[in-house]
Design a protein that fits this description.
480 residues; alpha/beta; Metallo-beta-lactamase, Chain A; Nonspecific Lipid-transfer Protein, Chain A; 2 domains; 8-stranded mixed sheet; 7-stranded mixed sheet; 22% strand; globular
Length: 480
């Protein structure tokens, strides 16, 4: 077996003439020119890439990247997790792909002579992880899938000898970074040290020979999101902490940095591409210069787009109709969208009134539970394409909290949009055979959620408690 890191979350696996690519964001940017690969994939690596199979873990655009997928043969066998919504299947069909297979939670597909892929789903955002094995080498690609407890134990019991584990290690959320004055209000919420510790606890719990920091190799080039580059977690710091912790605990697990272009094979071992993550600022400046014209075209395009209130009204009217009655937290919420265009010279104010379940246009801003500033182009895309799930990762929004509100209200609102777009609403959907079959396979998540609610009852949950079979982490200084 051989595998190669292609990009941010792109992975190529080859075995006895069979090849599989997962989550191929290989070219350009995503999230309205906000995210860019860091570092970029070597052009010669992706120029003639034609795998037998492509697996897509979930719908976020840094994993399900339309511009990259258009470069593949439409006859390629596409693999996706069998989840509640068929959105991934429909979007692939819109791109021209016809050979699409949904894999249920815990299910497997034979890729080659002795090569198998297993899919495991987890969480409200309909994320998935995969295990690929040929009986001699086993790869566990968790990417963004934050498995813990019984769902993680299910994989460990099924695959007691894991050779490589791949997992994300940095933020892909608007919380807390897009909240006004978050440094003063929520400075300790989801810090770099917490992400590093979470990666380490997960990796050492899995017990793989090698842990690979993965699916967080991106930077921000858009002028509205450049400020978030310093919030990225350093892969070097991840490897340093993980290896020190492994040594202190007497574990043989080793964290290895594998920038895009790096590979491993069962005959040659590691072939690591050189890249100095400590020179991140210089590389980002290089990308800014390289893509200057592309970014300028994006700014010009955004300045010309007018907000589409009809699309906004259609989206949220349908959402209001799908909501069940008696939701106290949501029913008291108001969300004011502050939409701007023409380089911030024209402003529009659209209100979501959850109590009366209606949308309202305003001429002036008012006090609301949440006030969210967003470009016209972004709000139009989110409404027309039903893709608010991409909105948070993009960080193309700014949030001001109303009196008495906190990051919890932001989480509730964004989770509600996720639930709507993943077709968890209306609730009667869950009586469908497809839904019932999925939930029965994923019963461990319900048990684990109940355990957490009972044990912590609203208190802050220490990261190490998610992996309570492990001894406490050592007191090691985490440096960025």
């Amino acid at each position: 077996m051989q595998f190669t890191i292609l990009s941010h979350a792109g992975l190529l696996v080859q075995d006895q003439g069979v090849s599989l690519v997962s989550d191929p964001w290989l070219r350009g940017s995503c999230y309205w020119r906000s995210w860019w690969n860091f570092p970029e994939a070597p052009p010669e690596l992706i120029a003639n890439l034609q795998p037998d199979y492509i697996y897509l873990t979930h719908l976020h655009w840094d994993h399900f990247h339309g511009p990259s997928l258009r470069h593949f043969d439409r006859e390629t066998q596409m693999l996706v997790p069998l989840v509640h919504t068929r959105r991934m299947v429909k979007d692939l069909q819109d791109l021209g792909f016809r050979n699409i297979m949904e894999i249920p939670h815990g299910g497997k597909i034979k890729l080659g002579n002795n090569l198998f892929l297993y899919s495991f789903q987890f969480g409200i955002t309909v994320d998935s992880a995969i295990v690929i094995t040929n009986g001699e080498t086993t790869l566990f690609n968790a990417n963004d899938c934050k498995l813990f407890g019984l769902p993680l134990q299910q994989i460990k019991k099924r695959f007691p000898q894991i050779d490589f584990v791949f997992r994300s290690f940095s933020s892909a959320s608007a919380i807390p970074y897009c909240i006004e004055d978050y440094q003063q209000r929520f400075g300790e919420f989801r810090s770099a040290a917490q992400y590093i510790q979470e990666f380490t606890e997960f990796s050492l719990t899995v017990g793989a020979k090698y842990a690979i920091p993965f699916a967080s190799n991106h930077c921000f080039l858009h002028r509205e999101t450049q400020e978030f580059n310093p919030t990225a977690v350093s892969p070097t710091a991840v490897a340093q902490y993980c290896n020190q912790t492994s040594q202190v605990r007497g574990s043989s697990s080793q964290c290895v940095l594998m920038p895009p272009g790096s590979s491993w094979s069962d005959t040659q071992g590691f072939n690591l591409r050189e890249f100095d993550y400590q020179q991140a600022d210089a590389y980002i400046a290089h990308l800014q210069e390289k893509y200057h014209l592309t970014l300028e075209k994006q700014y010009t395009k955004e300045a010309q787009v007018k907000p589409d209130y009809r699309a906004f009204e259609r989206y949220f009217t349908a959402l209001f109709r799908a909501l069940p009655p008696g939701l106290p937290k949501i029913s008291r919420m108001t969300v004011l969208f502050h939409i701007y265009q023409q380089d911030n010279n024209y402003h529009h104010y659209w209100l979501l009134d959850f109590h009366h379940r209606k949308t309202v246009t305003l001429t002036e801003p008012i006090e609301a539970t949440l006030t969210i500033k967003i470009p016209a182009l972004v709000i139009n895309d989110c409404c027309r394409k039903r893709m608010f799930s991409t909105w948070g990762p993009s960080k193309r929004l700014r949030i001001r909290l109303g009196q008495g509100a906190s990051w919890v209200e932001v989480r509730v609102f964004l989770s509600l949009l996720d639930a709507w777009e993943n077709e968890y609403l209306p609730l009667w959907n869950h009586l469908r055979p497809r839904y019932l079959g999925i939930w029965l396979r994923r019963w461990r998540e319900f048990v684990e959620a109940g355990r957490l609610v009972w044990r912590w009852r609203g208190r802050s949950l220490p990261v190490e408690e998610l992996y309570r079979s492990r001894p406490p982490a050592p007191d090691i200084l985490v440096t960025k």
